[in-house]
Amino acid sequence: MNLFAVAKIVGCFGIKGFVKVQLLTHSAPRLNKLRNIFIGISENTAVPAVIEEIVFNRNPALVKLQDVNDRTSAEKNAGKFLYVDEQNVAFPPKGSYFIHDIIGYEVWSETDNYIGKLADVYKLPAQDVWVVEKDGKQFLIPAVKDFIKVVDTGKHKIIVTVIEGLIEE
Predict the structure, then answer these.
(1) Closest CA relative to residue 82, chosen from 32, 26, 22, 27
(2) Is 169 among the domain residues?
(3) Most exposed residue of 4, 70, 136, 162, measured as fewest CB within 10 angstroms of its CB?
(4) 7 and 76 both lie in a single domain
(5) Minimal CA–CA distance to 84: which of 28, 122, 125?
(6) Rounded to whole angstroms, what are the CA distances from 3 to 9, 24, 100, 167?
(7) Residues spanned by the domain of 121
């Protein structure tokens, strides 16, 4: 079964078992309709779970899972992802990508210099920031059209514009 990450648990909230989640979807309101999801560190380790409640008036959003009724139980889920199956996927708009699909793509400059591999995506208020790793170093690239020129899903390759100070060699 193919699963798709829709949120990452980034912490706990209160003492009643709520977790803070960073949404990884463009259609957050549709999560209100979801009850049956999967939770895990990866798609391969995810197990079924049930959402009791979602609160969107905070950033990050809050989620209460069934049978997670205290902070201690909620803390065990920190760092895990919430997944949906193929039937519940809302595909991203044109020019957008599922984060889990592009993680691991090679990142190259427009002048054909290898920069590294896409390791993570930080979802920040202003824009996403892509984390590129090479030889133990991390480079942060704002995910805006000024920098991200091509995302080639066929070749698993990303082409970026590099300006002075963006990448330290």
Answers:
(1) 22
(2) no
(3) 136
(4) yes
(5) 28
(6) 16, 13, 10, 34
(7) 99-160
